[in-house]
C-alpha cells in the first residue's frame, strides 16, 4: 500500500503543530521535512530545531530530506532531533556508501535522492544498502513547481533495478504531486508520495490528504 508524506515546506509555520496534527488525523503516513542550506539549493529553510519541534507534535515517522552540502557534518544532530528516515542527495556525497552506513549506524533508515538530471546508474552499486530511493520530479529548492514528465520513466526504471538486484528500497517521489499527477506516478511504481502545496496550499487540508490517499490506494 502506497504511503503519503505531506511536506511541511508549504505549511503555515506560525501554526506548525496544528498543521501537522491536521494531516496526521486525516491519514498521512509520514511527515516530510525539507532541509535546505542556500548552497546546494537556492533556498534556505530550517535545521534540527524544527525537526525537534515537529517530533513533539506527532507520532508520524519524520522523513527528513537533506538538501545540504556536507550532510555528514549534521547527521548526528538530525538523528538526535528525531529523524526516522534521513535522505541525502547523491550529488552532495563523495563517499556515499560511508554516509549511508553512518545513517544506519545511528539507527535511522537511510535514503538517497537524485536530482532530475542525475542518472540512476550513480546509485546502482549501493542499491542493497539503501532503505529509500527519493526521485526528485522537480529541481529541488521550492514547493509549487510543475511535475517533470520524464520522471515517470525514471520511476519505472528504479522499480526494475530493484527487482533485478533483489533490493528492498522504497521508491519515493517528490515534486509536483497532485490529484492530477498522482495516478501516473502510482502506475510507474511509486511507494511513497511527497506532497507539499497540493495539501497545505489547498482550501481544505484535511480533504486533500483524504483525496490523495484515495488516489494512491486504488489500483
Ligand atoms: C522541493 C522539496 C519538496 C517540496 C515539494 O525541493 O523537496 O519536498 O515540498 O513541494 P510540491 O509538492 O509543492 O511540489
Ligand atoms: Zn523534499
What does this structure look like?
There is one protein chain. The protein is an alpha/beta fold and 219 residues long. The protein is 36% helix and 19% strand. The chain has helices at 16-26, 48-57, 75-81, 96-106, 151-165, 182-188, 197-200, 205-217; strands spanning 3-6, 31-36, 62-67, 85-89, 109-114, 132-136, 170-174, 192-195. Strands 1-8-7-6-5-4-3-2 form an 8-stranded parallel beta sheet. The longest helix has 15 residues, at 151-165. It is globular. Bound molecules: D-xylitol-5-phosphate and zinc ion. The site of D-xylitol-5-phosphate has 21 residues, from β2, β8 and α7.
SSE layout and pairings?
Blueprint: E1 3-6, H1 16-26, E2 31-36, H2 48-57, E3 62-67, H3 75-81, E4 85-89, H4 96-106, E5 109-114, E6 132-136, H5 151-165, E7 170-174, H6 182-188, E8 192-195, H7 197-200, H8 205-217
Parallel strand pairs: 1-8, 2-3, 3-4, 4-5, 5-6, 6-7, 7-8
Helix pairs in contact: 1-2, 1-8, 2-3
This protein binds D-xylitol-5-phosphate and zinc ion (ZN).
Residues 7, 32, 34, 65, 174, 194 line the site of zinc ion.
Summarize the structure.
The chain is an alpha/beta fold and 219 residues long. Helices cover 36% and strands 19% of the residues.
Amino acid at each position: 500500500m502506497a504511503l503519503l508524506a505531506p511536506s511541511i515546506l508549504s505549511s503555515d509555520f506560525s501554526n506548525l503543530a496544528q498543521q501537522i496534527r491536521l494531516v496526521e488525523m486525516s491519514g498521512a503516513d509520514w511527515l516530510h521535512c525539507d532541509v535546505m542550506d542556500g548552497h546546494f539549493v537556492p533556498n534556505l529553510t530550517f535545521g534540527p530545531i524544527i525537526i525537534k519541534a515537529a517530533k513533539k507534535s506527532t507520532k508520524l515517522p519524520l522523513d527528513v530530506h537533506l538538501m545540504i552540502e556536507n550532510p555528514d557534518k549534521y547527521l548526528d544532530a538530525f538523528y538526535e532531533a528525531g529523524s526516522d528516515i534521513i535522505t541525502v542527495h547523491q550529488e552532495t556525497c563523495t563517499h556515499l556508501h560511508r554516509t549511508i552506513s553512518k545513517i544506519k549506524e545511528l539507527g535511522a533508515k537511510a535514503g538517497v535522492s537524485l536530482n532530475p538530471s542525475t542518472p540512476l546508474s550513480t546509485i546502482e552499486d549501493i542499491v542493497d544498502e539503501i532503505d529509500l530511493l527519493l526521485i526528485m520530479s522537480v529541481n529541488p529548492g521550492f514547493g509549487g513547481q510543475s511535475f517533470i514528465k520524464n520522471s515517470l520513466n525514471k520511476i519505472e526504471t528504479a522499480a526494475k533495478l530493484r527487482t533485478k538486484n533483489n533490493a528492498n528500497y522504497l521508491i519515493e517521489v517528490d515534486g509536483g504531486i497532485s490529484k492530477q499527477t498522482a495516478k501516473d506516478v502510482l502506475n510507474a511504481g511509486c511507494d511513497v508520495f511527497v506532497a507539499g502545496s497540493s495539501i497545505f496550499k489547498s482550501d481544505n487540508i484535511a480533504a486533500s490528504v483524504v483525496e490523495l490517499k484515495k488516489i494512491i490506494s486504488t489500483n
